[in-house]
User: Fold these one by one.
Assistant:
Number 1:
Amino acid sequence: MSITGLHLLLSYQCTNECDHCFVYSSPSARGTMSLRFARNAIHQAQDVKGMEEIWFEGGEPFLLYPVLMNAAWYAAMVGFRIGIVTNGYFATTVEDAMEWLRPLVELPEIALSVSEDVYHGSDEGDNPAARTREAARRLGIEADAVSIEQPCGVVIEHEKGEPILGGGVRFRGRAADRLADDPSLPRKPWHEFTECPDEDWDRVGRLHLDGYGNVFACQGVVIGNLDARTLREIVREYEPDTHPIIGPLKRGGPAELVRHYDLPLKGEYLDACQLCFLARRALRERRPDLLAPPVVYGEDPGDASQGEQD
Ligand code: SF4
């Protein structure tokens, strides 16, 4: 692994329920991290060689405002760069948003990533995301816009040989269920998806951690749980070749996952992530420890089969 970043999913709860969300966040989703758990994870991140930055995301991390501020300050004080992903829902006005962001101004290295697209109201002109970015600009906080648009049939670029459809959507999570029906979108046979477009399994660069203690390579693909092992142990003991899900993905992408487990998914798909997500969901009953939590797979958001940490 070449880990440089730990991304804390403070909660799966969000103000929105976007069609393209790959962790199935919604107002009723749970999986909320306590402050004690977040600070302990940050403390453990100090033991991981090469770790440089802590990101806070979700769900919507500003829904847990006191936890977010306390944990962000703690992470900065122990020497990490800080990043926060938000939809800026709190920005009733630019001036109000400045008050929400003001406690972050003194952090030595802080960046905001603001979701600003049609799913988050960017077609409404003066929208919360735009107001948040303007507030950040006035306060001298770096802020980028993250934009996912409605998928269209135009291939805009290729990554590792895989086409990315216009709009930039990856068809995993809720996008695999809600955005994939359009018959005008181009599809390819399952056996052509022989590579994961995003992950280099030998050199995973960032990990995600949720409030259930799951540590992910890609969201929903668990490589360990903080209930059972420390972050350092999970990183040290990570072996992609023998991981029952990552092994096939590494050898031959989602197509190999389908072949290896003989899954009834031998049709046509929009991208590698759609086939991968559907294959993993089909395998969840067999490996609920490695394919978790239920909310990421679109199962009951109130599901309490995994306990939240405290
Ligand atoms: S192919 Fe699978 S593992 Fe790779 S980025 Fe897509 S969903 Fe994640």
Number 2:
Amino acid sequence: MEQLEAATTVERMLLEQAKRTRTPANGSIELLPLCNMNCDMCYVRLSREEMERQGRLRTADEWLDIGKQMKKAGVLFLLLTGGEPFLYPDFRRLYLGLREMGMIITINTNGTLIDEEWAEFLGKYKPRRVNVTLYGASRETYAKLCHYSDGYERTLKGIRLLREHGVDVKVGGSLTRANKDDLDKLLDIEQESGVPVRIDTYMMPATREREMPYNMQSRLSPEEAARARIHALKREMGPELFAQYAQQSIMKADHPAPAQEVPGHMACMAGQCSFTVNWQGEMRPCVILSGPAVSVFDVGFEAAWKYIVEETGRILLNAKCSVCHLRHLCRTCAASALLETGSYDGVPDYMCRYAEESLEILRKEWESLQNGKDISDW
Ligand code: SF4
Ligand code: SF4
């Protein structure tokens, strides 16, 4: 999802073509579950002891062998992620090997381990992009959320070093109760540094919080998340584009295109031209979905991909969503339906409230724009 969001027109065309032919053009490898930070909302991180109880890290040679199989199957875009991928013991050899195979590599990192040496290496052997996650915009937020108070300064330094070495960087982040007051400061980074910043305001429920009422969860309530989303969009788009977006969104909601009320298939890339493989070698359609799953080390890459395509094709979403007038404002998908409701064809209450509130705010924004007023707070 992440890679398509930032894809160029040519990349989008390649991925659309791959989707039609069920070619696994886009994938990610979660190299390890270890991280130097310990963020409250993380669903991947394990301590070394927890990891060792579950298995061992795969070696660079094992991944390079899978890399060859991936290449043969048509993988072109590869995301290396973790945990924190720069903690993977043989990262450089693996990265260079995959790069030599012709893979276009993106790296997801928290940015805190990037020093002069890493920046020089990545400047010399450039990835397509480094995606840096920012968890807040102050020492206090990093201490509270990630239990790593130096994190903010270190991440900013990492971003600066990468830029100095000519590496393409994109900043992403998720808004939660703990960092919501940092939203404007996070968005300011784009203006100050020229690095694109995208803040996600919707978060899937953390497993341990799923049964809790929204006001007890670490993510924002659906209404707060919608307000933050529109505020961020307004800043990202600028006044003219935002006005067009608001007008079109309202039009689509008030005059929805006719559609049939039938259960829908997954519309994203997952399991159609995209996959993820976790640190133990388990392939899944996407990072969030825990199933269908199959080990690439047990059955080989091609057989694993075939299985994922077949199983993903069986997943059906709720018919109500296929005719919903808020569909264009809603973020529901197989993974969110499953995590929010326990089933792929559930209709997530969180999503309906998020989409309804988004429309409500857009109406108010549109009205105020017509009256020459500006509502800038969220
Ligand atoms: S299922 Fe949802 S989370 Fe997974 S890739 Fe598709 S849109 Fe993204
Ligand atoms: S989750 Fe709710 S808002 Fe979203 S498409 Fe389905 S019914 Fe509409």
